[in-house]
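Lab meeting notes turned into a lecture example. A postdoc, R.K., suggested we walk through two folding results consecutively so the class can see how the record format repeats. The first protein's sequence and structure tokens come next.
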Amino acid sequence: MSKTCVIIFYGGRSTEHEIACKSALNFFKNLDRQKFQVAALGIDYSGQWYLQDEKELQTNKNPALPIHKHTPIDASINALLSELQRGGYEVSLDSLVVIPSLHGSFGEDGTMQGFLELAEVAYVGPSTLASAICMDKEVTKNLVSAAGIAVVPFMCVRDFEWNKNQKAIMADAEKKLGLPLFVKPTNAGSAVGVHKVKSMSDLASACEDAFRYDDKILIEKGMDAREIEFAVRGNYEPIVSTPGEVTFGDEFFNYKEKYLSNSTQEFLVPAPLTAEKKAEGVELTKIVYRALQLHGMSRIDWFLCRKTDKFFLNEVNTIPGFTEVSGVPTLWKHDGVSVKDALNELVAWAQERKATKAKLARQYVD
């Protein structure tokens, strides 16, 4: 029997393309070659697919998995299978598992998941529905609120509303939310287009910049809070990690603090919380995981208000950053779970979910 072929889809049509390539490197280095045939598919900024030479990638010395443009292929599973087989892989539709290392749009938002569902390919991570929900911060907040989870007060603004009623929206934000404010695209990650607004004179420019990345933005009440993260893995029952705390020297955890060399961020593991507060965070994280119907892995981020000591959901990342220094692998390592072992679990859960869905009737049976 041939080994399962695990293929990493990475890069993609997103402002987070470069980070996705860095995450892909960690997946690539840690997949167990004794258990799996390993392949990689680079997707460039235009959406073109390029099947990679695994031996060539093994020689890579850069901090990201490069996209070599030697072998362009059509964006279809049949074309991918044919090219893999031509390259010596023993692979079929039933033995293929995809790990999407595609942060943000066209990868983390349900589009790739829907494509893989249609092709009946097993894949790591949450479903089409859960991925789409979690990409949209407004929908996420509304759903977890219905499950009893606290969220930071916010307004959601569409671009056509902004174009018609800019002054009224700004006045409403000042009245309902006060200063400081945070402005962010509703469907984006890695703090792209996010601004802290301390003066109403800066609100318009912050909104305009956020609208560069999405046609819907959030205006949130600023909160003096600690940032607490949990890495979660599991099939439909969540396994929640030790909490970590992000600290940084800038105004907020922006793109520079997350990824650039002059970042001042520190990641404290475990987060300095009381046993009671840690247990509370774990239970709230489980509620969110189940309410949003997550699967495989996610990172669930919280604000812990310094004034009230209350947890407020910040966001959910369904394809979280996975570089060697990212929160998720760091938290798992602290808990004694290696990246290799975690990947073994994730692939098994992807296969199990596919097998469960394959048993469902697709035609009406009287």
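The second example is placed directly after the first for contrast:
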Amino acid sequence: MPKTAGQTAPGAIDREISEFVAFCRIEKGLAINSLQAYARDLRRLAAHEAAREGLPGKEGLLRYVDSLYKAGLGSRSIARNLATLRNFYAYLLREGRIQADPTRYLAAPRQWQNIPKFLNRKQIDSLLDAPDPSKSVGLRDRAMLHTLYATGLRVSELCAVQGMDLDSQLGILKTTGKGGKQRIVPIGKTALAAIEDYLRDGRPQLLKGRGSRFLFVTARGGRLTRQAFWALLGAHGKKAGIFHDLTPHVIRHTFATHLLEGGADLRSVQAMLGHADISTTQIYTHVVRARLRKTVDEHHPRA
């Protein structure tokens, strides 16, 4: 008879986690970043339950989620952990290793109450102007910042861009997002000009005759990592007077917010961001509501 959560043999949770991550890699074809996030979240669960036998059931999961709140995790981090738990237990249920799914008792945090942080037009202009164009790394950094703001790419997608992914004539960029899903995003003339300057005067100096399939490279000729981009973004942010909470995702939020402020529809923004579900894109509806309010105030005769 299938087991309920909590009846699995001691130590089996580690095996279940390994098999689940393998399933996600082989059967679902998830990207390495997603696999690492799943493994990290589930290792945290295993560590929390180390003194107890078997998989946690309803009470154990409620106790675990409560520990996440007590640890000071933000609502988005907790929501991600809950998504991991639901996927994990759904897998166990489908495989017949548990009889019932205890995650149905878990309530999601109200993670969308806070408006995503984004930069205003003056801030983004200052950030884009921060890199020194007289240096090869400055040309690279300026091209990367312009590309990020012009396309809304995730930082992992930005660092993985290859030369053949860019079509300057058509003004489009091909990228591979979560789950290995490819999408095409338009890229504007300003960003293309910054990339052209980098390709002409920056990239050859960085490569020094070496070859690389990646568009954005280091002084050693290798691919720029996510961690390195975070560091250079922080440095340019301070130069632009932006000292707090500046991350690549803030630029992604800025891209989406400015698009919607300019009149873009939510479905188009969803496609460009690579969101599988429109509900994820709806965190930006505060912009849509603000624009509707302004439209009514400006055009309704009795507003």
